[in-house]
Each structure stands twice: as C-alpha cells, then as structure tokens.
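In this notation, each integer encodes one residue's backbone shape. One such record reads:

___
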Amino acid sequence: MPIDLIVFLVLLASGYIFGQAAEKRHYKSIFEREKALHGILCSSERHLPEMGNVEGTLVSGSVVISIDYFKRFVAGLRNLFGGRISAYESLLDRARREAILRMKAEAGAYGASSVWNIRLETSSIYKNTQGSIGSVEVLAYGTAIKFR
C-alpha cells in the first residue's frame, strides 16, 4: 500500500472525526444562544408598524466558516455524480444562524427589542484551483428598534 494512500485515508478519517466534533460543538453553542436571545424579535419586513416613539440603529453580524477536509472530499464526489451537496447545506445553515445570532447580540447590547428589515449576504471567501468552496462568509444586518 503506497504511503500517499495511507496519508490520504488518515487525513480523510481525521477530517471526518474532528469535523463532526467541531460541527456538533458549534450547533450546541448555536442552540444555547438562540434560547438566550429568543426575546429579540426579527423580521424581514421593510416598514415598521405604528409603534409610537422608537429609536433605531443599524446592527450587523458577520461570520466566516470553513468546510472540513472530509466534507470537501464528499462534496467533490457529489459534484461528479450530481445531486444535493448536504455538506455545504450544513455549512451555510451554521453560518446563517451564527450571523443572525451575532446581529441579535449587537441589538441586545443596544437595548433593542426587535430587529427589522433583516438582510443576509453570502459570499465564498476561498476557492481552490478546482473551484470548490473552502470558506463562506455570511453577513446579517438590519435595523434594531428600541422604545424611547
């Protein structure tokens, strides 16, 4: 068995093990913070309802998340055969939720009770020579509202 194949299999197995552990840890953190910040309401509605005297400011949350080696390998195989690339779906799900949580945390520090006109922007940060995605950035922003 050539050494290159052994190194490849070790990298693949360690990517799977450590990647799964990191993803589970991140999701656990996301769930805990979502519970803590559930009181800050979010809406994509552009116009505020008549709520009296309110004050608003722009809040944002940004995150860059990288895909692990194992998921990159599986996504590459999926590109050959077609179909859903669930490795990227979980990457984007975690990134979106994390960006929204960071935006809500900033709104909470401002003293806001809600965030309106929420928008999400997604971009790939790194692509290798084959064009596969390595990292994604998600930016969540909106207008934090608090009553005067």
